[in-house]
Amino acid sequence: MKLKLTIKDTEKLKDSLQLISSARKFVVLKFTPKELCIISINDQVINQEPQIWIKFPADSLFESIEVQSLRENTISMELNIDLLLQTLKNFKKANSEGLNIRLQRTDTSGQQGVNSKNGRTASLALFYSNMNINSNTLNHTFRIPVKILRENQNLLQEPYHSQNSLIMRLPREFVTMFKRLEKFKKASGNDIVTIRASRTGNGFLGFILQEENKFRVTISWNNRLEVHKSTNNEPESVRETLKNINSSQMESSEEESVDEVQLTLKLNHWQQASKIVGGCEIVILYINDNECSFHCLFDDTGEVEILYFVNGIRVIT
């Protein structure tokens, strides 16, 4: 197993990580020769909590990349996201030219990594150099403990929708909807929301909050929405979705027609997406009666894709 990298765009990596750093303490980094995926999941209840996937094409993020493993040249590891973020911030302050990364199975003394209870027997070493005010070269090395994942590879599969969905391209101003819902959540203490989406008229997206015998409130987006119907449940990139929308290839056959959906989920799970939605340039919402997901492009380059996926819940009445 071998991992050897040189990063050419640490800012894009750092800024993307900051969008998801509050979700969970640990994330999974999945390296292949063509792509880096950063995955935030709870593998104990993977279908009951939101999943976050960030995807970087290797050629846009790395100057050089060498990934070798017996598992189709794929290396997955779990690490503390705050430690990685802090190292990237330190690198920025140092004003260095290149950040190098190596996967190390032994420490600097040559001893094997500590086989601790949490299984972190390796480290991700990040190192760089810079010049001080006396023109002396300073070398910096940071080692982040990691857990190499082998048996859990089957969990690291990008989620997909179980049925055809409505697809909505959300405007940048939509982030204000999260603020409106947060105010109501604090006032009522309610953590269940029903989302109703429709492609009729100018498109509709409403949030129904209620408590039996107490209140029923609908908060809706009042401006026009661009709404389409999907024809494929398999995962596709945001770029593919935009291409299909622009070429009018999103419409389903009549027998598969979806004009309105209704999804019930935990309000907190929806609200956790606010930082991602507010921080991305392009945001597309997929929604059906079972699940919903945000498919986002971080900026105009389209090089960084972020997926936020939430399963609905069944309300027993």
TrEMBL record:
It holds the Pfam family Hus1. Coiled coil: none annotated. It comes from the Eukaryota. It is found in: Nucleus. GO terms for cellular component: checkpoint clamp complex; site of double-strand break. Keywords: Nucleus. InterPro entries: HUS1/Mec3 (IPR007150). GO terms for biological process: double-strand break repair via homologous recombination; meiotic DNA integrity checkpoint signaling; mitotic DNA replication checkpoint signaling; mitotic intra-S DNA damage checkpoint signaling; nucleotide-excision repair; telomere maintenance. PANTHER family: CHECKPOINT PROTEIN (PTHR12900:SF0), MITOTIC AND DNA DAMAGE CHECKPOINT PROTEIN HUS1 (PTHR12900). This is Checkpoint protein. The lineage of its organism: Eukaryota, Fungi, Dikarya, Ascomycota, Saccharomycotina.
